[in-house]
């Protein structure tokens, strides 16, 4: 009995430690949900600025470009210019707002100093990535749905392949959310973030076929456009509406998938090493 009792006592005394570890592990697994909820609340609390404003901007683009070019441009020989323009504006809004969500959140947290409260938590770099990119995807999809609701009345649109629409919207928003993470980690002030957006994101978005078909460009610019991953996101997204596109949707899916894998891997690596957030 004397040999058994110490062993039993040891087992009992070690049990609270195991319970503590289990609770910590469970907390780490649930932590991304809390951070995700916080990020969603961050943009939802100011939805007039983060959702309504981009929808209004897209509507103005449609009214101006649609009015000016409707009678002068036909795409794919059967699609009106306004109908062609709407999916491009929807996807452009998705991409720009997904990038803005993660990048603005990180830079604000760094400048105001409240990022330290996240660093004190036991959240892994994967939890950060999933929460920030997930909230960016949600914001992009909400803005895209809003743009669709206010613009769909201006043209007769049909969904030929809804699955392609959803796939490219989600993958595109995730890619731009990951790019926003990288930009937010790299930037140390708002000027640097604005430069990243104005000189990289904005040109690549506007030169991706939002307002035109690739086949209307000269040969040189057609070839150059094939190096722009934003073109494949918008072209694949547009395929879901019309069943036709400038390139194969499978090629677009492959390019977007590879780009997401590379950019996502870089973002996870920077989070893992604490790039510019741990001193």
What's this model, at a glance?
The chain is mostly helical. The protein has one domain (31-273).
Distance between the termini: 55 Å
Number of strands: 2
- What percent of residues are in strands? under 5%
Poorly predicted regions are 1-16, 24-29
Structural class: mainly alpha
Report on the biggest sheet: 2 strands, antiparallel
User: What is the average of the pLDDT values?
Assistant: 86
Strand order of the largest sheet: 1-2
Share of helical residues: over 70%
Q: Give the total of domains.
A: 1
User: Order of SSEs, N→C?
Assistant: HHEEHHHHHHHH
Shape: globular
Radius of gyration: 23 Å
Helical segment count: 10
Supply the key terms.
279 residues; mainly alpha; two-stranded antiparallel sheet; 2 strands; globular; disordered N terminus
Structural description of this entry:
The termini are far apart. The protein is an all-alpha fold and 279 residues long. α3 packs antiparallel against α5. β1 (74-75) and β2 form a beta hairpin. The radius of gyration is 23 Å and the shape is globular. Mean pLDDT is 86; it is low at 1-16 and 24-29. It has helices at residues 4-44, 47-69, 81-112, 115-119, 125-151, 162-186, 190-206, 219-225, 229-242, 249-273; strands at residues 74-75, 79-80. Strands 1-2 form a two-stranded antiparallel ribbon. It has one domain.
